[in-house]
Design goal:
DUF1284 domain-containing protein; 5 strands; alpha+beta; globular
Length: about 120
């Protein structure tokens, strides 16, 4: 079972494998293949199967830049609120996809504001 945190449940709909080392991108593609083929997702708090290959993960925290771990955790909570799911819950990618598609433009403007990965995002 794939484990994903809140913001990844939203952001992975728009990210296309750029801006990271090849091993990270390969892991991401593998995860996406599995969830798109129907493998269940367990919603988690904190580092997930995407984070596991991230070069910025250090001691269970996002070390991308100062304050990023706290910022990411806030995004996780905002995403879980939108999707109406809780940590520990098991979900299908298709269900999450429908909920992400129904989010308002204003919600995305707030959620995505200031994102360092915006240039890699298909929403831009």
């Amino acid at each position: 079972m794939i484990q994903l945190r809140g913001h990844h449940l939203v952001c992975l709909h728009f990210y296309h494998g750029e801006g990271y080392p090849e091993e990270y991108i390969d892991n991401l593609r593998n995860i996406m293949e599995k969830v798109k083929s129907g493998e269940k997702i367990r919603v988690v708090c904190g580092p997930d199967d995407v984070c596991g290959m991230c070069p910025y993960l250090s001691e269970g925290r996002c070390g991308y830049k100062e304050g990023m771990d706290e910022e990411v955790r806030k995004l996780d909570m905002k995403a879980l609120e939108l999707l109406k799911v809780s940590p520990g819950e098991k979900v299908n990618w298709s269900e999450i996809k429908e909920k992400v598609a129904s989010a308002s433009k204003d919600w995305f403007l707030s959620f995505c504001e200031g994102c360092d990965w915006e240039r890699y995002c298909s929403r831009s």
